[in-house]
Amino acid sequence: EWDRWLLMGLIGIAVGILGFLTHQIIDCLIKLKWDLVENYVQVSKRTDLFFYLETHMDGNFHMTWICVLGFGLAMILVSSGSVLFFCPAGSASGLPEIIGYLNGTSMEHLFNIKTFLGTFVSCVLAVALGLFCGPEGPMIHLGAIMGCGLSHLQSDTLGIRLPFLSRFRNSADKRNFITAGAGAGIAAVLRAPVGGLLFTLEEASSSWDITLAWQTFCCCCLAATFTTDLLSSSFYGLVYRGHFGFFEVEKRILFWVCIVILAFIPTILLGVLGGLLGALFVSLNLKINKLRIQFFNSIPKPSLRKTSKLLEN
């Protein structure tokens, strides 16, 4: 089963890189839009200096408003057109479609490369424009597409079929990898690996086991923590900040170990303490509930039992 775990890790890393690119491109587009607005405002002020001296009012901002409006209309036309004409399967948020597929509903063109490209372009432009939407639903869809594509290593649209990992080309494994990819998508966009696992467990898939849970959690951790967070802390606006993640190469202690590694010691202690307290809470909760059920069952009269429950509240 090592190849299954390896493939889960590759899906997590790929979805994490996709989440990083999504965040970075959105930030770049937002910065580009407001840089254009700021530059145009400055130009308007300089050209309308005579108007300002005469009326004591700022420059003419009508053209600036038209510039912002035109920029927004162009983005929304491309965003809408990419899913309306290029890939109609990506016009929805993606979340209901993935939930439906994982629970037995087959949909056409849901996982092909055209849907992937159109959904990505539409998501990035819509979020950067500032519409009432977020990248969560599309990232779930994109993560599921990557899980499907990387596990099968084939594309009917491009006519590609690689002779590797052919044993995973079945319905059961396909759904498992799509589940992991969808969880990695929400984990990457929210940077919450546990959230990605809980999403797939509670919302997406109806077929579940403990092995798939660990594999999905591994995939979500690689997507959210190792890839998206690490790359996002090293780049801003697709520009390298000069350091890799939060590890400053100039600050070192004995044996050339990064000093930031010392921060892992209290983090590990807090994690162990939190786990022990959580286990204690769950154990006490189960015992208290068991005693509570035994107590209410020992009351013979239903009316008295209901009264006791009412007084308990």
TrEMBL record:
Pfam families: Voltage_CLC
Transmembrane segment boundaries: 6-26, 65-91, 111-132, 177-200, 212-232, 253-282
Gene Ontology molecular-function annotations: chloride transmembrane transporter activity
Major localization listed first in the record, in broad terms: membrane
Transmembrane helix recorded as keyword: yes
Sorted UniProt keywords: CBS domain, Membrane, Repeat, Transmembrane, Transmembrane helix
GO cellular component term of the entry, any: membrane
Subcellular localization: Membrane
Protein name as it appears in the record: CLCB protein
Organism: Nothoprocta pentlandii
